[in-house]
């Protein structure tokens, strides 16, 4: 008789943006050629926006930290890296990479006002049904003069085409991981940050085309999981219409 009990495999069908997808894909986080490969490239680019800590006590709060992919790129910058995420299986991996983890919703973070020198929200806001609340929390956590860094997907038709219709057919983005109804309008995000005292600058970014094609070819040929040298770079681009980074300091 076939076993009718529910199974957890990378192939179970879940609604778009269902957080249980991160449990099913838990083994992919740290594979440089895995389903989350592009998150590694983005983490490197995000970390480049973060200066060295000014004191040994400086806290960097990484909202939606996932498995802590930002950690290796912060090495040597001197922060205490605290990661906040909903997904236990991801947090366990983040902890194994030296992150102090807190299981919580980014819209209600159990950390004190003004505790952070830096708040990072990498590829998070486009997954949060109430992204405005997550932004309010990010700004609340920042101390005066603290730095917010983020990257997310814009609420445009082009972003839906590129990130979902095309991106989710490529091996760099898991299928169904996005719900494009949650994508974040860049102008609305800048306005929301301003409302909470953070003057945000945004710029469009994209993966380097040549490097990404070479990476895809290597992956199709079954290239080995080798980090570092051959990883495509995330580079600035004129348009914010698809993927964009933001950074800004809290006034006060
Ligand atoms: C696309 S991953 C990005 C992970 C990480 N920032 C990175 O770039 O590698 C999105 C992460 O956000 C988490 N997440 C989604 N909604 C969340 C929420 N409301 N509060 C906290 N974490 C959330 C997911 O569990 C997942 O780990």
How would you explain this protein's 3D organization?
By secondary structure, this protein is an alpha/beta fold. The chain is built from eight helices and eight strands. An eight-stranded mixed β-sheet has the order 3-2-1-4-5-8-6-7. The structure holds S-adenosylmethionine (SAM).
Keyphrases for this structure?
binds S-adenosylmethionine; alpha/beta; 252 residues; 29% helix; 8-stranded mixed sheet; disordered N terminus
What is the element layout, followed by pairings?
Blueprint: H1 20-24, H2 37-47, E1 59-63, H3 71-74, E2 80-85, H4 88-96, E3 100-103, E4 116-122, H5 131-141, E5 142-153, H6 157-166, H7 186-195, E6 201-207, H8 209-220, E7 234-237, E8 243-249
Parallel strand pairs: 1-2, 1-4, 2-3, 4-5
Antiparallel strand pairs: 5-8, 6-7, 6-8
Distance between the termini: 67 Å
Largest sheet features:
8 strands, mixed
Overall number of strands? 8
Question: In percent, how helical is the residue content?
Answer: 25-40%
Strands ordered across the widest β-sheet: 3-2-1-4-5-8-6-7
| Rg computed from alpha carbons, rounded to a whole number of angstroms | 18 Å
The quaternary state of the protein chains shown equals single chain
Tell me the β content: 15-25%
- The structural class is alpha/beta
The number of helices is 8
């Amino acid at each position: 008789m076939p076993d009718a009990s529910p199974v957890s495999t990378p192939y179970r069908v879940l609604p778009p943006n269902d957080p249980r997808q991160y449990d099913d894909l838990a083994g992919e986080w740290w594979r440089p050629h895995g389903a989350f490969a592009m998150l590694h490239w983005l983490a490197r680019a995000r970390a480049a926006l973060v200066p060295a800590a000014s004191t040994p006590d400086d806290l960097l709060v990484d909202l939606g930290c996932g498995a802590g992919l930002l950690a290796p790129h912060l090495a040597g910058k001197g922060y205490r890296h605290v990661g906040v995420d909903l997904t236990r299986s991801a947090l366990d991996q983040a902890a194994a990479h030296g992150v102090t983890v807190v299981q919580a919703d980014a819209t209600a973070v159990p950390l004190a006002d003004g505790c952070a020198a830096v708040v990072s929200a990498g590829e998070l806001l486009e997954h949060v049904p109430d992204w405005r609340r997550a932004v309010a929390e990010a700004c609340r956590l920042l101390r005066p003069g603290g730095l917010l860094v983020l990257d997310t997907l814009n609420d445009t038709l082009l972003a839906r085409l590129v990130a979902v219709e095309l991106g989710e057919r490529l091996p760099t983005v898991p299928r169904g991981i996005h719900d494009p109804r949650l994508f974040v309008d860049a102008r609305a995000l800048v306005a929301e940050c301003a409302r909470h005292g953070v003057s945000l600058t945004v710029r469009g970014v994209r993966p380097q085309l040549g490097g990404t094609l070479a990476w895809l070819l290597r992956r199709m040929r079954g290239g080995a999981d080798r980090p570092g040298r051959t990883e495509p770079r995330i580079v600035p681009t004129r348009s914010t219409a698809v993927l964009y980074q933001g950074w800004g300091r809290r006034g006060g």
